[in-house]
Design goal:
With 116 residues, the chain is α+β, with helices and mostly antiparallel strands. The chain has a domain at 35-115: Immunoglobulin-like. 16% of the residues lie in helices and 43% in strands. The protein has one helix at residues 2-19, and strands spanning 41-47, 50-56, 61-67, 75-78, 81-85, 90-100, 103-104, 109-115. The strands form 2 sheets. Strands 3, 4, 6, 7 and 8 form a 5-stranded antiparallel beta sheet that branches. The protein has a 3-stranded antiparallel beta sheet with strand order 1-2-5, with no helix packed on it. A hairpin with a 2-residue loop joins strand 6 (90-100) and strand 7 (103-104). The protein is flat.
Length: 116
């Protein structure tokens, strides 16, 4: 009897798993609606080893790619208001792009900041 109950529960569980796997409806991507960085306001402020990245662009998220000779690899951060703590002093370059549901902007803004 126990085997029959376990078998029945297994069939029910498999049924739930199969019925929950329905495809999601994905809206089509419109290349003409890629974000433009021309209207983006991007600011970088440094306080000690903490760098604050601030950007303003409607309906988009900013993508910050930080590079420097002291970094082993580029750091990529996303957000319109974020703080990142760096441990090494030096001059850093950051490329700022915008991202929305249609993709990543073609253009970018390049800025530099210095950590003492």
């Amino acid at each position: 009897m126990k085997k029959l109950i376990i078998y029945f529960l297994g069939i029910v569980l498999i049924g739930f798993c199969v019925s929950s796997c329905t495809p999601e409806v994905i809206e089509s991507v419109d290349q003409s609606k890629l974000p433009q960085v021309s209207g983006m306001k991007a600011e970088i402020s440094v306080l000690g080893k903490v760098v604050t990245f601030h950007s303003e662009i409607d309906g988009c998220v900013s993508v910050w790619t930080v590079s420097s000779s002291v970094l082993k690899k580029n750091g990529v951060y996303t957000g319109n208001d974020l703080q990142v703590k760096f441990k090494d002093a030096g001059t850093y370059s950051v490329e700022i792009k915008a991202y929305n549901r249609n993709g990543l902007s073609d253009g970018s803004i390049i800025k530099e900041f210095v950590l003492q």
